[in-house]
Design brief:
Keywords: Cytoplasm, Transferase. With 370 residues, the chain is of the alpha/beta class. Helices cover 35% and strands 13% of the residues. It has 12 helices and 11 strands. α2 links the parallel β3 and β4.
């Protein structure tokens, strides 16, 4: 739909002419070829979940010419050029935040956010980001949907695709995400699964580039549980060609198939049990919580013993470069995986990292819905 402004136009642009409501009263619309002298006779272009379709009267839309659906579900499914374009767009959106033109990018589009796991940063950043691009947001929780009463994800995907323009899912189950993407006819975004967290890594890479200027020659070290965030870091390193070191206790390695995939791609990914060796002369040190929301009390005690040697403290950071950055996707358990001295110290960029979730995800939304 058109938006008020000094130079109202269609979105996407409808040839060189203005749209059915914006055009001067004596022009004819390139969409419907009817005179605008009688607004009741002017018909707006049909609108699908992928944007306005320019349709001649009496002619059905050619579905074979529809653009492919752009899912953002896993970094391994995308190429370096696409990820580079998203990062560059995110940086540009951040630099010109509040620009009136950006507030028209997703006018008339609606994003559904489905949360099967609680979230602070994911919910707020997606909701604010979509609104800053001119779109609308619908927030749904698992118990508010028929999913909690036995409806399949496939059926939910088919229904929501008729109502909204994109769907973000945050869930423990990667199988649910795959089902959603397979059966949805609109873009699907991975807000987090137990196996990956691609939106977080895009914000992380954006933060590192802001401080270093480039990812070239980067040496990144992951310390702790080889979880979903570590997996996405491995995939990012494979795409961008930087060195990735992981220090994980035995039994908490990243999935073997992910390591094998990275090695098959020629990535410089190494796994060790020694956090001090892994951190030596690193450009950035990354960690995450040792405990998940579903971890039992007995398991918490066991993990605390296993991971004690993998705490990121100032002594460990001193083994990295003097200019090394500390990253954490948050929430942090201070005194466990990281000390307050580090997370509040001069090498910490966790607050920039959290802010960049907003800007990186705005670029992801623009890419999915462009």
């Amino acid at each position: 739909m058109p938006v008020p402004g000094p130079t109202p136009t269609c979105w996407p642009p409808c040839a060189p002419r203005a749209c059915w409501r914006c055009r001067p009263p004596t022009t004819s619309c390139a969409c419907c070829r009817r005179s605008s002298l009688d607004p009741k006779r002017s018909t707006p272009p049909f609108r699908s979940s992928r944007g306005p379709l320019r349709v001649w009267p009496g002619r059905p839309p050619d579905m074979t010419r529809m653009p492919p659906i752009r899912h953002f579900t896993d970094l391994a499914a995308l190429d370096r050029a696409t990820l580079r374009a998203i990062l560059d767009h995110g940086a540009a959106l951040k630099a010109r935040r509040g620009d009136p033109g950006d507030r028209r990018l997703l006018v008339g589009r609606t994003l559904a956010l489905i949360f099967e796991r609680n979230s602070t940063r994911t919910r707020v950043s997606f909701e604010v980001g979509m609104r800053e691009l001119g779109g609308d947001v619908l927030v749904l929780t698992g118990d508010a949907l028929q999913l909690s009463r036995g409806e399949t994800m496939a059926d939910t995907a088919r229904v929501l695709s008729r109502y909204v323009d994109a769907i973000m899912l945050r869930t423990d189950s990667p199988e649910k995400l795959d089902d959603l993407a397979r059966h949805a006819s609109v873009p699907v975004i991975n807000g987090l699964t137990s196996l990956s967290h691609p939106c977080q890594i895009m914000a992380d890479l954006m933060t590192v580039e802001e401080r270093r200027g480039s990812l070239d020659g980067l040496v990144a070290t992951w310390v702790g549980d080889g979880n979903n965030v570590a997996v996405s870091w491995i995939k990012a390193a494979t795409h961008f060609g930087f060195e990735m070191r992981l220090a994980c206790p035995e039994g908490f390695d990243p999935p073997a198939q992910v390591l094998a995939w990275a090695q098959a791609q020629g990535a410089a990914v190494t796994l060790t049990r020694d956090p001090e060796a892994a951190v030596a002369q690193a450009d950035c040190v990354i960690t995450d919580t040792w405990m998940s929301m579903s971890t039992s009390e007995d398991e918490r005690e066991r993990r605390a013993r296993v991971f004690a040697a993998y705490q990121v403290n100032q002594a460990l950071m001193d083994r990295a470069k003097d200019s090394a950055l500390f990253l954490h996707c948050l929430p942090a358990h201070r005194g466990e995986e990281v000390t307050s001295e580090v997370i509040d110290g001069p090498q910490s960029v966790v607050w920039d990292e959290a802010e960049n979730r907003l800007h990186a995800q705005k670029a992801i939304l623009a890419w999915c819905l462009s």
